[in-house]
Structure formats: C-alpha cells, structure tokens
Design goal:
It comes from Duganella dendranthematis. With 310 residues, this protein is mostly beta strands. Helix content is 5%, strand content 36%. It has one domain. It has a 17-stranded parallel beta sheet that branches. Strands 2-5-8-10-12-15-18-21-24 form a nine-stranded parallel beta sheet, with no helix packed on it.
C-alpha cells in the first residue's frame, strides 16, 4: 500500500491550524480555563472519557459535555474506570451551570457533585443550577463545610457532619445554592452542611433519608421530593424520611410537595433534631399521616397553610 506523504502533511497543517483557532476548554487540572462565551468558562473532561470535571478556581462555569460514568460488563486488566465524582469543587465563590445536561454516575462508587473541606479550607458560596444529576448508591450532592466526629447521624461515623455536636454558634456561613435541578439516587440524594444555604425549584427523587441538611437558616422552597420508602432493615438502618433537618434553627420550609411511595408504614415527611423556630408553610404532603416529627425538646416549628393528602 502506497502512503501519500503529501496528503499527510496537508492533514497535519489543517489540524494544527484548527487547534490554534479553536478555543480551549477547561478540565480538572487547568487552573485558568479559557473563556468560552460572555458569561461562563466551559469545563469539560479533556481525557475524552466524559467522566468527570474538577473546578479549582473561583468563577462561573458551564459544563461543556454530558458526563456519564458506567463500569464495563467485563473489566480488562489495567482498564481505566471512573472513580472521581462527576463534578469536584475545590474552591469557593463558584457557580456551575449544567446547561440543562443530564449527568449520570451509575457505578457503586459514583458521586454527583462533591464540595467538602479536605484541606481545612472551608468551602462557601457555591451554586449548582439548571440540569439533571443521577447517581446509584452514592449521593448526587455532597456539600460539607467541616467534619465533626461527635455526630453519627448516619450510623458508622463516616458521615459525621453536624457542626460541633449541636453547638449552633460553631456553624459558618456557607451559602450553598441548589436551583432548578432534577436529582435522583437510590438512597440519599442530598447531604449538605453549613449555614445560610438555599435549595429551591428542584425535583428530588430518592430512598430513605432523601434530603439531609445540617445547619441554621436553610431556605428550602418550591421543591418536589419523592421518597421511595423501604423498610428500615432494608436500607442500612436508615429511617424512611424525606427531609431531615438537624441544627436547622431559623430555617424556612415552604411551598414544597413531598410524596412518599412504597413502604409508607412509619415513613415521615419532615424530621427535625435540635432545630428551633423552623417555619413550615404552604407544604403539601402525601403518603403519611403527619407533617413533621420532632426528635427532641430543642426543636420547634411554626406551621401554617400546610396540607396532608393521605
């Protein structure tokens, strides 16, 4: 077979010109992503696997490709598989626009968005918006400001994330925002910890312990939660609760729809621990006989215009 070197040279020149003229995209390791348009910097996985992206700088970012994580049916020796979350955030003052994309991590270890204090540098002012994230057994959203081993809300201490064993003065403003998202997981969907956080206009579909928020002054409004409840013994001893609030003093939960399906026996819509002066307003609850459950004397609510549809 004859090789046309002249054709190869022309192709190489065209490729080089194309690379020069085409804007670069940012990925996990680039510290200064290129501006893609007038309002955001584009974040993509430059490995071409489209598994994950990491954001290490402050700024406004757009997810530039549909991220999807799966394991092969048969894994070959040395074959790479996705291990990082779909989106990892290592900085504060970050906005991530999913651009209405559908992100999926259908592996046993696959997480959605992770922003946590891993270097004693608390994360704050992080917004995730406009898109769909689906995971399997891991949370779709894990945004945690700091750790505290005194709290064992999730049993083993591995998710010990309530700040300073109920001392509300220890919480720091995190100002996390989730908006216009569809979030789905088999178990926990959201695990969030911090102060002055907002979750609004989201559809959240999960299992026992669907939404778990730790910290004061949460605004949780105009959301829909669908809890596919299972017996506690079948869900790693997690009680079937749609919205769990701890240390949530002064929080507002309003204009939400909570639907409990599956094993509704013993299922609860809203559970509060160490959470005084929480406002429950205009919420519609289906699949259970009670609007809320207080786990201790420290918790209290002001409930108005809520509706129970058994």
């Amino acid at each position: 077979m004859r090789i046309n070197f002249r054709t190869i040279k022309i192709f190489i020149k065209i490729f080089i010109i194309h690379r020069i003229l085409t804007p670069s995209f940012s990925n996990a390791e680039q510290l200064n992503p290129k501006v893609h348009n007038s309002f955001c910097e584009v974040a993509v996985d430059l490995t071409t696997d489209n598994w994950s992206v990491s954001i290490r700088n402050s700024g406004i970012f757009c997810i530039g490709s549909t991220l999807k994580q799966t394991f092969p049916l048969i894994r070959l020796t040395h074959q790479a598989v996705p291990m990082s979350p779909l989106i990892s955030i290592f900085s504060s003052n970050v906005t991530v626009d999913l651009m209405n994309r559908n992100l999926s991590a259908q592996t046993p270890t696959g997480q959605g968005v992770v922003a946590e204090d891993t270097s004693r540098m608390p994360r704050h002012t992080i917004e995730i918006r406009s898109g769909t994230i689906r995971t399997a057994s891991q949370p779709t959203i894990f945004m945690v400001n700091s750790w505290n081993s005194n709290n064992v809300r999730f049993g083993s201490g591995r998710f010990a994330i309530a700040e300073s064993a109920g001392d509300l003065t220890q919480y720091k403003p995190t100002e996390f925002v989730l908006e216009n998202l569809t979030l789905t997981a088999e178990n926990h969907v959201i695990i969030m910890q911090g102060m002055n956080n907002i979750i609004r206009h989201c559809k959240i579909i999960g299992g026992n312990g669907t939404v778990n928020v730790f910290g004061p002054n949460l605004i949780f409004e105009d959301n829909e939660i669908i809890l596919h409840a299972r017996a506690q013994a079948e869900a790693s001893d997690q009680a079937p609760a749609a919205l769990y609030l701890e240390d949530a003093a002064g929080s507002v939960v309003r204009n939400n729809r909570i639907t409990i399906k599956g094993n509704t026996s013993g299922s609860q819509a809203i559970v509060l621990k160490n959470s005084p002066n929480v406002t429950l307003q205009g919420n519609t609850i289906s699949g259970t006989d009670s609007l809320y459950n207080l786990l201790d004397e420290q918790s209290s609510v002001m409930a108005t215009d809520n509706h129970l549809n058994r």
